[in-house]
Amino acid sequence: MNIANQCNDCLAITDKASNGNTFTQFTVKVNIGSGYAFYDGTQAPSLPPNYFDLASLMRHEFGHSLGLCHSNAAGLLMFTNLAQGQVYPIDNDAADGDAFIYNPSYNGPGPTGGCIP
Ligand SMILES: [Zn+2]
Question: Of the residues 36, 56, 61, 100, which is catalytic?
Fold first, then answer.
């Protein structure tokens, strides 16, 4: 399987299966065949500037699996492109989106720079 052909040289892709409004399965595929360098935090104490943080990438893809789509604000976890050498924590935007989708008693804002399906 060539992930690069499926997502135009993306770092990763999340496939979701659903039954109505309920997600029943998701699969995260990381593109290791296009020369991207990934860093998992075990090689050295700090993230090299030319590497992508694998944990951040997985947080981003798990956000998709929860139903979040891409944010329009650079620097947020759910922005379209993660930058090399950057660590992306779960930010307020992603947390607001998660609460907006899954917590029926949540009365706070939705994702400020992001979106939900
Ligand atoms: Zn994405």
Answer: 61
How many residues are listed for the chain in this entry?
117
The tens digit of pLDDT for each residue in 10-66 reads: 899 988 888 887 778 888 988 887 889 999 888 788 898 999 999 999 999 999 888
CA of 68 to the centre of ligand 1 (A): 9
Residue 78 Cα to ligand 1 midpoint, Å, equals 6
If you measure from the C-alpha of residue 42 to the centroid of ligand 1, how many angstroms do you get, rounded to a whole number? 24
The answer to whether 77 touches 56, Cβ cutoff 8 Å, is: yes
Give yes or no: 100 in active site.
no
Summarize pLDDT for 55-83 with one digit per residue, the tens: 999 999 999 888 898 888 889 999 988 99
CA distance 99 to 29: 25
CB 114 within 8 A of CB 78: yes
- Other CB atoms within a 10 A radius of the CB of residue 61 amount to 19
